[in-house]
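As a warm-up, study this chain.
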Amino acid sequence: MSRSCPRLLLAALRGGAGKTTLTLGLLAAWRAQGRRLVPFKKGPDYIDPAWHALAAGGPSHNLDPFLMEGDQILALVARHAQAADGILIEGNRGLYDGLDAQGTSSTAELAKALATPVVLVVDCTMRTRTTAALVLGCQHFDPLTPIRGVILNQIARPRHEALIRNAIEHYCGLPVLGALPRLKCAVFPERHMGLVPPQEHAKARKAVDTARDLAQRYLDLDGLWQVACQAPPLPEAKVSEPAAVAGEPVTIGIIRDSAFQFYYPENLEALEQEGARLVEINALEDPLLPRQLDALYIGGGFPETHARQLSENLSFRNGIKAAARAGLPIYAECGGLMYLGEAIVTQEGKFPMVGLFPYEFIMDKRPQGHGYTILEVDRDNPFFPPGTVLKGHEFHYSRIQPEPGLQENLVFTVNRGSGLGSQREGLVYQNVLATYTHLHALGSPRWAPALVRRAREYRQTTHLPEDNHQEGAHEAHDPNLVTVFS
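Now compare it with the structure written out below.
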């Protein structure tokens, strides 16, 4: 039987009901009490986990029933529970919202699979007793969902709170474990993908401190912890031990800065488990690429908000292009795809990028791709054999121009999602593969071994030519320019 670790899941009736602010407040408040909480986010989101990590003082992890198998989710939570005082999971969307009418992949199904008590965050704007009816409906909709308490949000005045609190406790038999007043201004500013990432927030630490103060003032911290302690031992997970890695170590560069910040911890861990040494690179400030790289991983992020600075770092852009032409394996996702294109076009103008692919990426006001993706590999590429099926997700406001034609070597068929257009995805140039889709290493177990294998092949054959060492590279061990992951 797994260790019995206190755990709690915050859910709501809809997105935007205040779950993230309360999650951050709880993480910071319990941390201030000396408790070590490991946070999780239900779904594929990158931004909320970045805020979680700031509040908790440690990494946050994603739990996604679409991208991962049930035993993988259980094993991931159980592994982190071993060294934690407690676990706090933030749900997404509404409690029962899923991929179909049966609620597949919903927050409620995740709570049941992890045997984790649920506390509902309810927006009480312009409602009193009806709030109890909504909560009661959630209880009766699926009695197996372990709803154990309620937090009220957007309370207008004390009488408003008293009416709702009494109704919920009377009709639902649930404790009200906090009541937050209507705030005059947002604690966390939002952008088109949700919250502004903490890497771009000038007062990120102050925002988390504000959330902590709200939690300490308006939440029943002891009551919430008692609910978390009611969680039974985690169900056992059936997982196989990872195979021993054979082969020499390789060095993989990770472009990680305020422009490129979307990396799942499990993706980086998977690369390390395959024998990779990871080196951080800053595309905004580093003048040159590290020397002796065996591969490069460019994740997603917001290159459009940093387009001018990325464009002005000409020596770095030239180094990427020269490395790709020399055969360096490069895997790029979403923002990384945009960076490898000809230019990014925003309202401020057109900004040249690496220029490896002859396409511009135009920023739009509406999402151009949003949701889960299913890709089937049907052409040769550096990383995946034909016939491989990949499950991922996309969320981007950019569109590619011109739309790639049939003559372009797009290597994926899009069975679900938008892709690059015409149900195609995946741009290839030599050992470079770039796609709008984000992959998670647990859901795409072939990804990390493929990238490391290609890195080893490259290492055994050649490295960057000497002229590129001088013009497009710097020493990877320079402590002023890169950080090595521990």
